[in-house]
């Protein structure tokens, strides 16, 4: 496995307490409540054809050492040359994080020996990163009242750096193999401020960050392929007290694990402190099998990386016009999209949040809602489509229904051709068999019966067959529902529900 | 046929055009000289006999076909620091044992594109770290020059000692070299040859084994100023593979030769009069001043106040960069590997066996000055000094000075295995006292032979120019050369 040690970093960052301790986020221990403080360093692989400083390909899944240039293998006399696409992607990500874009930044060398680090140093940015302070709004909830809470998490910085290669230890009894395909691939390290106070917030943060980079197309966000991974800094303290000593959990590669690692680590630290012990600043690993973190390296064992500016590279400089051009080309981001869906289409914040949570879902929804009722479209995407996808364990990308097919179903409901109930059947048919919903409704005779004569007959029949129930209903109008149900049943669900309702009431002489 | 190896590049090139001899004959003459004398000098660490003859034959075809390049058929020696495809490229280090790159450095590729012929790879101080060529894994190079009436072997200087000795001993028509703190100019001065370190960024560093990236620059060592101009013309280029190479057109350097220096302002920095400097260096300097004055140049006294900090600052910056640049030699991918019980042990065994003493010393110095807690006190300070040194020069040039004249070295060539230098590395480092400022400021500097000392050993003068004004240096050095004459080592081998 990849050893995370190589991404160790201690920024000189002033810790600012941005949050008021909130009782609902505290963890109760034996000696009272504790507050957990979380900061994240996320490594996001830049979406680019070529590596950060070489022309080698970045394609995932290539044969070992297939995507390796002379530069990546650190052959003697080779020099790095910056890939402008990676710079553009970093700036775009910075803009998406509403962050300060630094017109001048510097690449530094971080020196350490490791077989999958051919140069003997990683080119990174230490003192002058390309992107400075920014922020992400995360939404946490729902609470017992079903409300969501927006929390602002500060971004400390974003910088560009090279990924390392991969050491493979299970191919030979005494030797290790090295695959340099990842060596030199561009990463964005996105460092948050220590603004999170619960595992849920940290998970929401990674989720939101992933959503943003996916919207921007600057990182594919695939955690299982290692395109996005998080180093999690955790400390605990008495609510509102001094910050505690932190431990850094390296290379956590799923959102679920981020949550598990934090919960475990917070409990571990609280137990130590409550036993009168103290926390050692150290680097830890999360073991997903055991669900625990364990020590990897103490502060004393930390490397001295001997950072210094890379003399092979000039400082990275660009002007505001360059940034402006990238800003003008930025796609609509999830927060803006959410607000637009709420304000323009009248969706609830809850529904809008679900729809924008993934770029592909939002795109699907917008295609369905185009020229149609937003609310009905949202209902169908969220309740039917996402529900069915979830049940089938599929992604929206391979949904069996196209947005146009779902849109056609919405149209059939809206123009009264079918009822909502029939629509669900049509949905299932299209899901399983495909086809044009309109045609399916036609050929299978699912069309809603709006012919009042036919419905009237069915109502008369039901009333005639149940004289005592009719008597009761006249005395107790809420019984009318039973007749509506029977009529619907008799008409195979095709009768227009409103018409049935009206006729039942009229025939029974119910006036309200 | 007279000895073809005695011809300058310009002469040989003209005679090749005139079909007085073939490129193959010229190359064979050099291969013969190498065979006869390389054992004596140890200038070449690899002779590419077959490749040289094949290249020469190809040159003859191009000469016959009227497609001859500027260096067509000219046999050159290449410092072992330059990557040459399929050919020994080891920076004269044990750690790169057996390394033959699959690529060609930009500088050598430029030379071959112009028709030059490769004779082989030249000895040097290991990873260009040294001023005497004694740190080479392949052993020291002998200077063709000896003191009058002495049989004592002298060093050719370093780190480009093989390049300078080969040029001075007629074992190549010209040579590539590199200069990080004086590695072209000091050996040129020690061997009576001409060496120019161009402006940082003038020659691509791509494919040249790195010592200290912010200081390294390639340049030629040649028999005279004209040959140096011809070689640099070919070596220099902008290169998109080197982010620090500069996109400026390469002028016709030879056009500057013979142009008058009348009215030019030549600065004489008072800080270059160092304690313990032999009287004859001062005399030589005055002679140089007189020649330029006679040629119509205006001589002005200038001050470069931060000069005295240059050498100490250099010995922080250069080792710092080197300690990082040499981290890639870890036994994992190429070169020497000494097995160990685990990966760390393998690194340690490999690097312990693969690097020589001087290289290890500099890696340790560099590692130390970059360490947490020392970085600000050493590296950051040294960078500040560097800025001040640069500013010194900028101020002088802004005041109208066109070039600066200084001695090239504080002494003539010294003996191989000099006890004093072996005992105190700083004594060795002092060889670069007049040359390191130029690297720290990224400026061009040329060393041109100007006379012999009382022992009959060559001494050089150095001219320092404004960024990318190599033409001024060639023009001025040519005036000194005209006045001083050429210096050839009396043949004893």
TrEMBL record, chain B:
<dbReference type="InterPro" id="IPR020556">
    <property type="entry name" value="Amidase_CS"/>
</dbReference>
<keyword id="KW-0067">ATP-binding</keyword>
<keyword id="KW-0436">Ligase</keyword>
<feature type="active site" description="Acyl-ester intermediate">
    <location>
        <position position="183"/>
    </location>
</feature>
<feature type="active site" description="Charge relay system">
    <location>
        <position position="159"/>
    </location>
</feature>
<comment type="function">
    <text>Allows the formation of correctly charged Gln-tRNA(Gln) through the transamidation of misacylated Glu-tRNA(Gln) in organisms which lack glutaminyl-tRNA synthetase. The reaction takes place in the presence of glutamine and ATP through an activated gamma-phospho-Glu-tRNA(Gln).</text>
</comment>
<comment type="similarity">
    <text>Belongs to the amidase family. GatA subfamily.</text>
</comment>
<dbReference type="InterPro" id="IPR000120">
    <property type="entry name" value="Amidase"/>
</dbReference>
<feature type="domain" description="Amidase">
    <location>
        <begin position="25"/>
        <end position="473"/>
    </location>
</feature>
<dbReference type="Pfam" id="PF01425">
    <property type="entry name" value="Amidase"/>
</dbReference>
<dbReference type="GO" id="GO:0050567">
    <property type="term" value="F:glutaminyl-tRNA synthase (glutamine-hydrolyzing) activity"/>
</dbReference>
<dbReference type="InterPro" id="IPR004412">
    <property type="entry name" value="GatA"/>
</dbReference>
<comment type="subunit">
    <text>Heterotrimer of A, B and C subunits.</text>
</comment>
<keyword id="KW-0547">Nucleotide-binding</keyword>
<dbReference type="InterPro" id="IPR036928">
    <property type="entry name" value="AS_sf"/>
</dbReference>
<protein>
    <recommendedName>
        <fullName>Glutamyl-tRNA(Gln) amidotransferase subunit A</fullName>
        <ecNumber>6.3.5.7</ecNumber>
    </recommendedName>
</protein>
<feature type="active site" description="Charge relay system">
    <location>
        <position position="79"/>
    </location>
</feature>
<comment type="function">
    <text>Hydrolyzes indole-3-acetamide (IAM) into indole-3-acetic acid (IAA).</text>
</comment>
<keyword id="KW-0648">Protein biosynthesis</keyword>
<dbReference type="InterPro" id="IPR023631">
    <property type="entry name" value="Amidase_dom"/>
</dbReference>
């Amino acid at each position: 496995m990849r050893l995370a040690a190589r991404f160790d970093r201690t920024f000189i960052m002033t810790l600012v307490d941005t949050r008021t301790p909130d009782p609902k986020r505290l963890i109760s221990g034996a000696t009272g409540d504790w507050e957990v403080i979380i900061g994240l360093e996320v490594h996001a692989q830049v979406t680019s054809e070529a590596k950060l400083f070489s022309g080698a390909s970045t394609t995932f899944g290539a044969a070992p050492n297939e995507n390796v240039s002379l530069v990546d293998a650190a052959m003697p006399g080779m020099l790095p040359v910056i890939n402008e696409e990676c710079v553009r992607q970093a700036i775009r990500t910075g803009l998406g994080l509403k962050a300060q874009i630094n017109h001048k930044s510097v690449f530094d060398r971080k020196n350490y020996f490791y077989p999958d680090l051919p140069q003997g140093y990683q080119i990174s940015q230490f003192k002058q990163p390309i992107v400075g302070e920014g922020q992400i709004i995360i939404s946490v909830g729902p609470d017992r009242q079903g409300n969501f809470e927006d929390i602002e998490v500060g971004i400390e910085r974003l910088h560009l750096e090279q990924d390392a290669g991969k050491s493979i230890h299970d191919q030979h009894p005494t030797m290790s193999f090295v695959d340099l395909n990842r060596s030199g691939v561009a990463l964005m390290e996105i460092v948050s401020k220590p603004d999170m106070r619960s595992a849920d917030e940290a998970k929401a943060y990674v989720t939101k960050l992933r959503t943003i980079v996916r919207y921007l197309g600057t990182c594919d966000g695939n955690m299982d392929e290692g395109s996005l991974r998080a180093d999690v800094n955790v400390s605990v303290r008495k609510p509102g007290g001094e910050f505690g000593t932190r431990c850094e959990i390296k290379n956590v590669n799923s959102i679920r694990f981020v949550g598990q690692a934090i919960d475990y680590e917070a409990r571990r630290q609280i137990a130590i402190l409550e036993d009168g012990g103290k926390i050692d600043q150290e680097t830890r690993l999360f073991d997903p099998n055991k669900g625990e973190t364990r020590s990897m390296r103490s502060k004393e064992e930390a490397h001295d990386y001997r950072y210094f500016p890379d003399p092979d590279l000039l400082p990275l400089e660009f002007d505001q016009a360059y940034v402006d051009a990238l800003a003008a080309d930025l796609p609509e981001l999830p927060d803006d999209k959410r607000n637009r869906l709420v304000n323009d289409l009248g969706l609830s914040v809850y529904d809008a949040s679900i729809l924008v949570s993934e770029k592909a879902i939002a795109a699907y929804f917008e295609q369905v809602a185009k020229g149609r009722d937003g609310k009905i479209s949202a209902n169908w995407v969220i309740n039917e489509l996402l529900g069915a996808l979830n049940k089938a364990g599929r992604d929206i990308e391979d949904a069996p229904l196209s947005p146009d097919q779902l849109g056609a179903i919405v149209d059939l409901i809206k123009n009264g051709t079918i009822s909502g109930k029939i629509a669900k059947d049509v949905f299932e048919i299209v899901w399983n068999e495909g086809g044009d919903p309109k045609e399916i409704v036609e050929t299978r005779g699912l069309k809603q019966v709006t012919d009042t004569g036919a419905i009237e007959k069915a109502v008369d029949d039901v009333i005639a067959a149940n004289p005592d129930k009719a008597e009761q209903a006249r005395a107790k109008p809420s019984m009318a529902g039973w007749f509506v149900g029977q009529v619907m049943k008799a008409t195979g669900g095709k009768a227009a529900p409103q018409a049935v309702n009206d006729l039942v009431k009229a025939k029974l002489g119910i006036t309200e | 046929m007279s000895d073809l190896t005695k011809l300058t590049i310009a002469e040989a090139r003209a005679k090749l055009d005139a079909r007085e001899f073939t490129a193959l004959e010229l190359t064979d003459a050099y291969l013969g000289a190498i065979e006869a004398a390389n054992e004596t000098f140890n200038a070449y660490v690899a002779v590419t006999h077959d490749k040289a003859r094949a290249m020469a034959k190809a040159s003859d075809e191009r000469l016959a076909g009227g497609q001859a390049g500027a260096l067509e058929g000219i046999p050159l020696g290449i410092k072992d620091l330059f990557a040459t495809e399929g050919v020994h490229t080891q920076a004269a280090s044990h750690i790169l044992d057996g390394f033959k790159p699959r690529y060609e450095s930009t500088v050598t590729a430029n030379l071959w594109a112009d028709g030059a012929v490769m004779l082989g790879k030249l000895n040097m101080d290991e990873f260009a770290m040294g001023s005497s060529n004694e740190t080479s894994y392949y052993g020291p190079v002998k200077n063709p020059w000896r003191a009058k009436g002495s049989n004592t072997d002298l060093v050719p200087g370093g780190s480009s000692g093989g390049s300078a000795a080969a040029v001075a001993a007629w074992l190549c028509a010209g040579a590539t070299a590199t200069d990080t703190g004086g590695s072209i100019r000091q050996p040129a001065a020690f061997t009576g040859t001409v060496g120019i370190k161009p402006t940082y960024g003038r020659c691509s560093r791509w494919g040249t084994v790195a010592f200290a990236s912010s200081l390294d620059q390639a340049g030629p060592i040649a028999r005279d100023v004209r040959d140096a101009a011809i070689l640099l013309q070919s070596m220099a280029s902008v290169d998109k593979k080197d982010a620090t190479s500069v996109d400026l057109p390469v002028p016709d350097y030879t056009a500057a030769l013979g142009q008058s220096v009348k009215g030019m302002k030549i600065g004489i920095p008072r800080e270059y009069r160092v304690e313990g400097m032999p009287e004859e260096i001062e005399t030589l300097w005055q002679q140089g001043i007189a020649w330029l004055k006679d040629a119509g140049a205006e001589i002005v006294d200038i001050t470069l106040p931060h000069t005295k900090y240059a050498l100490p600052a250099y010995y922080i910056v250069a080792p710092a960069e080197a300690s990082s640049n040499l981290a890639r030699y870890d036994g994992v991918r190429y070169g020497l590997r000494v097995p160990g019980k685990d990966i760390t042990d393998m690194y340690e065994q490999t690097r312990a066996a693969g690097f020589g003493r001087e290289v290890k010393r500099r890696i340790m110095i560099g590692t130390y000055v970059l360490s947490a807690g020392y970085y600000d006190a050493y590296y950051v300070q040294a960078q500040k000094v560097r800025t001040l040194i640069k500013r010194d020069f900028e101020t002088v040039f802004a005041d109208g000075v066109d070039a600066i004249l200084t001695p090239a070295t504080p002494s003539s060539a010294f003996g191989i295995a000099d006890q004093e230098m072996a005992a105190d590395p700083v004594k060795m480092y002092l060889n670069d006292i007049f040359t390191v400022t130029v690297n720290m400021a990224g400026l061009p500097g040329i060393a041109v032979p100007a006379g012999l000392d009382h022992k009959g050993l060559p001494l050089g003068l150095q001219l320092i120019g404004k960024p990318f004004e190599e033409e001024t240096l060639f023009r001025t050095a040519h005036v000194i050369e005209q006045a001083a004459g050429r210096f050839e080592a009396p043949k004893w081998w």
